[in-house]
Amino acid sequence: MTIRIVRLGEPRAVDEGVRLGTVRRPPRGVPKSEFAKQDWYDVWYPNLAPSVETMKLGQEAATPAQWNHFARRYRAEMATPENARTLDVLAALSHQADFSVGCYCADETRCHRSILRALLAERGAALRPAAPARATPSPESPPRRRLRDA
C-alpha cells in the first residue's frame, strides 16, 4: 500500500486508488460530475494546497533562494495543528490503502507536491518513488484542459 504523488489530469495508474486534489481551485471548464471521470481527482482537498499568497511565491520563484522561501512558507502552513493532523492521518493510511495526492503543475520539483512528498515521508508514509523528471515536456503530458492556478 502506498501514496502516489501525481499530476492531476494525467491518466490514473491501475492501482492508484482514490485521488485527492490538493489544489486551491477546481479545474476550469470541467463540470463537477466529470472531475473523477476525467482523471482530475475524486476528492477535492484544498487544505493541503498552499495559500494563495504562498502559491504566488512558488509560481514566481526564479532563484533557489526564492524557492526556499516558498518552501519555508508552505511548510509553516502545513505545520498548523489541523494540517499536521491531516498529514499524520495520510501517512498512517498509506500503510493500509493505495491512494494519491496531486496538483496541476507539470514539474513536481517546482511544485508544492515535492514538499508534500517530503512532509509525508518525514511522517513515515509509504510513498511510491517520484517519476523521473523529463528533460523537456512531451506533447502527451499536459492535462487535457486549460487550468486555473493550482
Walk me through what this model shows:
It is a single chain. This protein is an alpha/beta fold and 150 residues long. It has helices at 52-60, 64-78, 81-93, 112-122, and strands spanning 3-7, 18-21, 43-44, 99-103. The protein has one domain. The protein has a four-stranded parallel beta sheet with strand order 1-4-2-3, with helices on one face. Helix 1 (52-60) runs antiparallel to helix 2 (64-78) and helix 2 (64-78) crosses helix 4 (112-122).
Write the layout of secondary structure elements.
Layout: E1 3-7, E2 18-21, E3 43-44, H1 52-60, H2 64-78, H3 81-93, E4 99-103, H4 112-122
Parallel strand pairs: 1-4, 2-3, 2-4
List keywords for this structure.
150 residues; alpha/beta; 4-stranded parallel β-sheet; 4 helices; 4 strands; 11% strand; globular
Order of helices and strands: EEEHHHEH
The coarse silhouette is globular
Parts with pLDDT < 50 across at least 5 consecutive residues: 135-150
Radius of gyration: 15 Å
Content-based structural category? alpha/beta
- Ends: how far apart? 27 Å
Strand content: 5-15%
Question: What is the helical fraction, as a range of percent?
Answer: 25-40%
Summarize the structure.
By secondary structure, this protein is α/β, with parallel strands linked by helices. It has helices at 52-60, 64-78, 81-93, 112-122; strands at residues 3-7, 18-21, 43-44, 99-103.
